[in-house]
Amino acid sequence: MSSLQPVRGTHDLLPEESRRHRWVEEAAFAAARRYGFGEVMTPIFEFTEVFARTLGETSDVVTKEMYTFADRSGESITLRPEGTAGVARAFISGGLAQSLPLKLFYRGPMFRHERPQKGRLRQFHQVGVELLGVESPLADIEVIALAWRVLSELGLAGKVRLEINTLGDAESREAYRNTLTAYLSQFRLSLSEDSRNRLERNPLRILDSKDEGDKRIVEGAPVMTDSLTPAAREFFQTVTNGLGMLGIPFIINPRLVRGLDYYCHTAFEFTTTSLGAQGTVLAGGRYDELIATMGGPRTPGIGWAAGVERLSMLVDEPPAAVRPVAVIPMGDELAAMHVAERLRRAGQTVEMGFSGNMKKRMARANKANARFAVILGEEEAQRRAVTIRDLDGGSQEEVPLASLEEHLGRLL
Ligand code: ATP
Ligand code: MG
């Protein structure tokens, strides 16, 4: 065991990177708040059944990717591979049916045992939203508008493309399933083993297959659009009209299906060509039967999740961090530390090197992008004064030590 290596597919976020990461998360949450969403924090592990039942027994996540283990009391536990199932479980166990509609935002680590590559990790992070209790397509429009807002505010509007499709209602899907099975059965022997196994149980899944041979077969498959009931068609029409009205660009991709079993009606993805094979940055859809499937009261829902690492790779530099004040001692270092402490108490961000001569410390102050330096020279100390140097302009002035906070506060 190479116990001092990080586990394959995990990584440490050092300050530079975590700043980007937090910026993405915060931008998402700030936008979500403006749409009326509040944050929910569910545990990062659940009983295995929570995921096995909701994600569908034939899904890749359940069959291949879950981190499942028996805990010390023999319970089967799974580290959450996604956020929706846990939120739905919290809705049921918390008896939240009286509080509908519910608008929930979440963020945090997710775990999937996949083959690690760029933009694909075993511990990754998502931000996501769920809107529960609204049957109307207005909810679909609002949730997609929020996704578009988040991406726009991250400066990604020009880098992503919204693809949208409908999976219809139960009746539409039943009809489509039959048409699709009939088509795919002709190629039974050429399908990948995974897809052959799905042919009876969940043929829609095959449309999502990443196997090259499967993809070629899928190209000629009939599309969902032709099997829609009038009601499902109208639902989708309302969603696309709404997006048009809000000025959100999209393309309809009739082959888009989501990898998870509980979706109906609207399915959508924001994709990019800038991240190689890992092109999906944000994905979501409607899941009206999920909560009922889990044993709760039937409650419609729609939501999405976005990969924070993939977004972080796409965004430009986050807005600059707060520029610090550098405290530079030339004699008594403890006295300087006291000054630094006073300024921090007054709300300033303060850098103070632990060693070095004036020149070294000034270089460090510039490297930290400090706005001002507070220099504690020995002579000024006699006068109970300090020098404030403007590191952008180069000017400096001497101020009484007693009113340093006040002076700096005015300058900043
Ligand atoms: P993919 O097709 O890339 O495997 P997925 O369909 O499994 O994605 P979802 O379950 O819809 O992904 O998760 C939503 C988002 O979470 C993805 O669009 C992606 O940005 C991110 N994501 C999913 N899996 C990973 C991973 N292993 N590493 C990093 N980000 C991920
Ligand atoms: Mg996946």
UniProtKB/TrEMBL annotation:
Residues 32-324 form the Aminoacyl-transfer RNA synthetases class-II family profile domain. InterPro entries: aa-tRNA-synth_II, aa-tRNA-synth_II/BPL/LPL, Anticodon-bd, Anticodon-bd_dom_sf, His-tRNA-ligase, HisRS-like_core, HisRS/HisZ, HisRS_anticodon. L-histidine binds at E82, G83, T84, R112, Q126, E130, R258, Y262, Y263. Keywords: Aminoacyl-tRNA synthetase, ATP-binding, Cytoplasm, Ligase, Nucleotide-binding, Protein biosynthesis. It is found in: Cytoplasm. One of its GO terms (biological process) is histidyl-tRNA aminoacylation. GO terms for molecular function: ATP binding; histidine-tRNA ligase activity. Its EC number is 6.1.1.21. Gene3D superfamilies: Anticodon-binding domain (3.40.50.800), Bira Bifunctional Protein, Domain 2 (3.30.930.10). One of its GO terms (cellular component) is cytoplasm. It is an enzyme of class 6 (ligase). It catalyses: tRNA(His) + L-histidine + ATP = L-histidyl-tRNA(His) + AMP + diphosphate + H(+). It comes from the Bacteria. Belongs to the class-II aminoacyl-tRNA synthetase family. Homodimer. PANTHER family: HISTIDINE--TRNA LIGASE, MITOCHONDRIAL-RELATED, HISTIDYL-TRNA SYNTHETASE. NCBIfam families: hisS. This is Histidine--tRNA ligase. It comes from Paramagnetospirillum marisnigri. The gene is hisS.
